[in-house]
């Protein structure tokens, strides 16, 4: 198994070198493709490092919820080991995406997780501070690029322009939108804001439905944390979904199958926990009624 992993890693590195050589020999000057590969930014098999980063943040938060719950329950089993390895690998790959947005979302999600489980003590604040420091390091690394388009300021400027153009499209088609697949900007096929793009493509009814889904997810997630004893599991699910919700403010994860598929899984997990809580509450209530002495 280790040998197979080594072969896959070596093949991936070789493929990236061949791709870079192909771009150079054929005088292909698409700057972002060259930048991703030359600067060692992880993105495969996703369309961009930022989309991969959004996906990894969800994985990291889910694993952290499992790890914390297993430690609290004093269960040192294979689930703890697998979750720890998955979180560590995902964290390392997240660093190599060099995605500012991904690290900002991770920082916000760590704060949400700690707040939801009411664990803002010194130890957990140190964890939050470490994430902030790594995020700052990623920003510095990105800002040292020689080309302007590799710097965070360029990305922020472009996103703001995309949002303005999308807002203009919404103003022209506020009710029905432009139709699925008909959205396009001057320099991009996406607005880098899924909320605006949903409204622009599918109209006001679609964005209202989407916001209702987001609201119900957050409300049921909070209820699950306050009701169920598996607080860290539930907080991990709520925070992982929140990562997707937050990341779509600055990117288009909703429109990529890999990221959105994980979101719908998290949504289903949240709903299933709500169902379990309801059944447990009904059973406890029925047992209390049955224990009452009959008159």
Protein traits:
single chain, 295 residues, mainly alpha, 75% helix, 0% strand, globular, disordered N terminus
Structure commentary:
The chain is mostly helical and about 300 residues long. About 75% of the residues lie in helices and about 0% in strands. The chain is built from eleven helices and no strands. It has helices at about 1-25, 30-40, 50-70, 80-95, 100-115, 120-145, 150-170, 195-200, 205-225, 230-245, 255-290. Helix 10 (about 230-245) packs antiparallel against helix 11 (about 255-290). The chain is globular and about 70 Å long. The N and C termini lie far apart (about 70 Å).
Give me the secondary-structure topology.
Layout: H1 2-25, H2 31-38, H3 49-72, H4 78-97, H5 100-116, H6 122-143, H7 152-172, H8 194-202, H9 204-227, H10 231-247, H11 257-291
Helix pairs in contact: 3-4, 3-5, 3-10, 3-11, 5-6, 5-10, 7-8, 8-9, 9-10, 9-11, 10-11
Summarize the structure.
Helix content is 75%, strand content 0%.
What composes the largest sheet? none
Strand content: under 5%
Q: Stretches where pLDDT falls below 50 for ≥5 residues?
A: 1-12
**How large, in whole angstroms, is the Cα Rg?**
22 Å
H/E element sequence: HHHHHHHHHHH
| Quaternary form | single chain
Number of helices: 11
Task: Provide the helix percentage.
Answer: over 70%
Structural class based on helices, strands and sheet pairing: mainly alpha
Average pLDDT number? 79
- Assign an overall shape: globular
- Terminal-residue CA separation: 68 Å
Number of strands: 0
């Amino acid at each position: 198994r280790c040998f197979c992993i080594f072969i896959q890693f070596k093949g991936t590195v070789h493929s990236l070198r061949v791709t870079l050589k192909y771009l150079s020999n054929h005088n292909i000057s698409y700057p972002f493709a060259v930048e991703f590969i030359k600067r060692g930014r992880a993105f495969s098999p996703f369309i961009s490092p930022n989309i991969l980063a959004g996906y990894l943040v969800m994985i990291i938060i889910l694993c952290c919820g499992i790890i914390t719950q297993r430690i609290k329950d004093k269960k040192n089993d294979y689930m703890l080991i697998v979750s720890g390895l998955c979180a560590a690998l995902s964290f390392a790959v997240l660093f190599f995406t060099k995605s500012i947005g991904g690290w900002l979302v991770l920082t916000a999600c760590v704060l949400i997780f700690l707040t939801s489980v009411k664990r803002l003590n010194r130890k957990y604040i140190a964890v939050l501070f470490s994430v902030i420091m790594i995020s700052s390091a990623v920003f510095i690394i990105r800002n040292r690029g020689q080309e302007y388009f590799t710097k965070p300021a360029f990305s922020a400027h472009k996103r703001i322009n995309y949002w303005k153009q999308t807002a203009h499209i919404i103003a022209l088609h506020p009710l029905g939108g432009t139709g699925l697949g008909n959205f396009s900007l001057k320099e991009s096929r996406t607005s880098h804001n899924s909320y605006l793009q949903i409204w622009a493509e599918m109209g006001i009814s679609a964005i209202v439905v989407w916001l209702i889904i987001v609201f119900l997810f957050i409300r049921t997630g909070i209820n699950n944390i306050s009701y169920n004893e598996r607080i860290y599991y539930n907080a991990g699910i709520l925070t992982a979904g929140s990562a997707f919700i937050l990341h779509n403010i600055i990117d288009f994860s909703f429109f990529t199958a890999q990221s959105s598929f994980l979101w719908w899984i998290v949504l289903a997990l949240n709903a299933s926990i709500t169902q379990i809580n309801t059944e447990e509450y009904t059973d406890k209530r029925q047992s209390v009624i049955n224990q009452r002495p009959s008159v």
